[in-house]
Specification:
7 strands, five-stranded mixed beta sheet, 145 residues, Alpha-Beta Plaits, 30% helix, Acylphosphatase-like_dom_sf, BLUF_domain
Length: 145
């Protein structure tokens, strides 16, 4: 039987000033990867100039609690849930938190849930993963496909 998990996808408008963006985003990823690894949460964060789109996967209570914390963060506004559902399996099972560019390329390496360093996005993501990344991009109009 497949592992059922809760998936939550949200988008929000970035309030991080352009001149501080690199440092602030690095801090966000460091904290997210560490906490997510401990709590069994996986996912991906798509970043554009003005928007965040994030997918979180894991135990429903854990994901919901994490989203409540994230939604109160003043580094973004206009937080809206795109999807909140139970799915048969994780799409980002190896990623404690991956940073994905709007073009779909990996931006930085990350530690996966097993503690090994892996690229943030495989060269050839699986069909389900590619479909979800496309949906994420489409929520902010970043996908031209």
């Amino acid at each position: 039987m497949a592992e059922q998990v809760h998936r939550l996808i949200y988008r929000s408008r970035s309030e991080i000033p352009r001149e501080n963006r690199e440092v602030v985003l690095a801090e966000i990823f460091d904290v997210a990867r560490s906490k997510n690894k401990r709590s069994g949460v996986t996912g991906a964060l798509l970043i554009s100039d003005n928007w965040f789109v994030q997918t979180l996967e894991g135990d429903e209570a854990t994901v919901s609690g994490l989203f409540e914390t994230i939604s109160r963060d003043d580094r973004h506004t206009d937080v809206s849930v795109i999807e909140s559902t139970t799915v048969d399996a994780r799409v980002f099972a190896r990623w404690s938190m991956a940073r994905i560019s709007v073009a779909g390329r990996s931006d930085i390496p990350l530690h996966d849930v097993d503690g090994r360093i892996r690229p943030a996005a495989p060269d050839r993501p699986g069909r389900e993963q590619q479909d979800l990344l496309t949906r994420m991009r489409n929520t902010i109009g970043a996908d031209s496909v």
